[in-house]
Amino acid sequence: MSDPIVIVDEPAKFVRRITLNRPEKRNALNNQLRTALFEALHDGDGDDAVHVTIIRGAGTCFSAGYELGGGNAGTPLPFFTSAGEGQWPRHVTEGWMSIWDLAKPVIAQVHGYCLAGGSELATGCDLVFAADDAKIGYPAVRFGTPDMQFHAWFMGMRAAMEMMITGDSISGIEAARLGWANRSYPIGELEAEVIAVAERIALVPPDIVQLNKRTVHRAMDIMGLRAAIRSGTELCSLAIHQESFQKFMAEMQEKGLKQALQDRDAPFGDYRTVEEH
After folding, report:
1. d(CA 248, CA 143)
2. Do 143 and 248 form a contact (C-beta atoms < 8 A)?
3. Degrees to nearest 5, angle at CA 128 with 127 and 131
4. Which of 60, 63, 79, 241 could be stapled to 118 by a disulfide with Cβ–Cβ 3.0 to 4.6 Å?
5. pLDDT of 43-77, one tens digit each?
6. Rounded to an integer, what distance in angstroms lies between the CA atom of residue 260 and that of residue 277?
């Protein structure tokens, strides 16, 4: 039998951990992986023995983003999203923002690449702890527009603008300084530090944690975060009709995904072997 697409374990009392388990694909987020992830999150949210959940990635990184290599062919979306223009960005943002609506806190444990869709997943979590040398970014802005435009909310206007118009990544240290991550640690310390935080959360009664989690997210909703992210999906949809986007997709069909990404990123000197977004 093949390895499970997610691995679920309990590294401490009341702590559930979900590991994205496509290391050979840098944990590219295909429909099967997203389906299994949401199922595991929902199971934990309804389990009295779980007070907090950690999400991490197997192998060299958290997630290099969405599967672009045909890995979704013939597979259903994890949940219903109305069809029509912009279905994909509406679908994925609904999924990641639904993590906010879970009763129990979810922690992203980020190492290595955390790109595009991977950064969307981490942003949807309640807390983010990163390795110092993690690479958080959205390289897909070099040919299109993000599905989930969280940058200005979590990084401030200037840093957000730089990331959005260059596609450059930031380190875990920078992500913590800017406010996207809570803290960063040397990679060898990250797992223990994340479990320690999870154990502290687990000491607080879950019914109280649920309300306190909600107060923060409701405040962000009132300030317009969710509305802004929803409106951003329309801009993402508009981007696919742009000449540059169509040119990139044609190049991908002609040369293959890896070569198209190498051609895109070579002038910048980064990302060149990453195959997912």
Report:
1. 7
2. yes
3. 155
4. 63
5. 999 999 999 999 999 999 999 999 987 779 889 99
6. 13
Region at 14 (left for phi over 0; alpha for psi -120 to 50; beta for the rest): left
**Model pTM score:** 0.95
Using DSSP, how many helices (H) and how many strands (E) does the chain show? 11, 9
Cβ atoms of 62 and 125 within 8 Å: the answer is no
Tokens of 89: 């960005």
Residue 94 backbone dihedrals phi, psi, to 5 degrees? -60, -40
For 181-217, write each residue's pLDDT tens digit. 999 999 999 999 999 999 999 999 999 999 999 999 9
DSSP string, 128-181: EEEETT-EEE-GGGGTS--SS--HHHHH-HHHHHHHHHH---EEHHHHHHHTSS
Task: Take residue 256 and report the two structure tokens written for it.
Answer: 């293959």
Q: Which residue has the tokens 């992830």?
A: 37
| Cβ–Cβ < 8 Å for 113, 23 | no
The whole-angstrom separation of Cα 39 and Cα 90 is 19
* 131 token code pair: 């390795």
